[in-house]
Amino acid sequence: MPSMPRPDAVTVPDSVQAFLTGTALVAAFTTMRPDGTPHVAPVRFTWDSDAQLARVMTVRSSRKARNLLATPGAPVALCQVDGFRWVTLEGTGTVVTDPERVALGARLYAKRYWSAPPTPSDRVVIEIAVDRVLSLNA
Predict the structure, then answer these.
(1) Which part of the chain is the Pyridoxamine 5'-phosphate oxidase N-terminal domain (predicted)?
(2) Among 59, 69, 71, 78, whose CB has the most other CB atoms within 10 angstroms?
């Protein structure tokens, strides 16, 4: 099921698009714990420019998923770095359990990273609705 761009769509230059979809790098994913402190974890992710969504495969019991379940729609940041080039995607994060959307996340992950993600029974996808893109040298 394709997503329609949101009315508040962000502009993503071609060079940034290439950086987010090219080399299969990892990123630092930041969520906020219920006590207000940041939780930063390295993650693999995919970028869907049409839907303006970044997706992170994880499990429901992970700290990042529990943070978002405690505060649905909370602000998050995903920062991919390669030397002196970086892109940060900011937006709101949502833990998604819908089997079709989790399967889509897994397919996109496998395409980018050349291997399927793990398949634990509590697998979910975190969808990040991006509303700001920051970058340097990308």
Answers:
(1) 14-135
(2) 78
